[in-house]
Amino acid sequence: MAEEKHHHHLFHHHKEEEKPVGYGETTTYGETYTGGDGLGTAYTETTAVEYEKPVEEKPVDYEKEVKHHKHHEHLGELGAIAAGAYALHEKHKAGKDPEHAHKHKIEEEVAAAVAVGAGGYAFHEHHEKKEAKKEEEEAHGKKHHHLF
């Protein structure tokens, strides 16, 4: 019977060009155990674990981060507006189409919930943008002086 190879991977392995950012050299640690059950059956088990040393992080581009959060804030606002408009459209349809009014009411409520969620996301991104601006000012040595 041919010897079968069993691979027990503890981590996902990436090709050289697909390595995640922040990782460099790979170090492999392992051990091999050979044993048997005393009845003539022998086996070999090899365990290998790879550890990657972190590479120094690149400096943070705060301007790019602020731009990113501003873009996402605007997308959240746009989503809230679109979902709100759709909710109003479904409310209008519910009044015009009494045969399917229940369906339109449900769609209206779902659209309203989506609008609230998108608004919350825009609010979240607004605060992330403010935080990124504050980090940028702190990184460049600007300090806020609160006089009152």
Automatic annotation (TrEMBL):
InterPro entries according to UniProt: ABA_WDS (IPR003496)
Pfam families per record: ABA_WDS
Extent of Basic residues compositional bias: 1-13
Coiled coil: none
Region of interest: Disordered: 1-24, 125-148
Taxonomic lineage: Eukaryota, Viridiplantae, Streptophyta, Embryophyta, Tracheophyta
Biased composition (Basic and acidic residues): 125-140
Protein name as annotated: ABA/WDS induced protein
Family listed: Belongs to the abscisic acid and water stress-induced protein family.
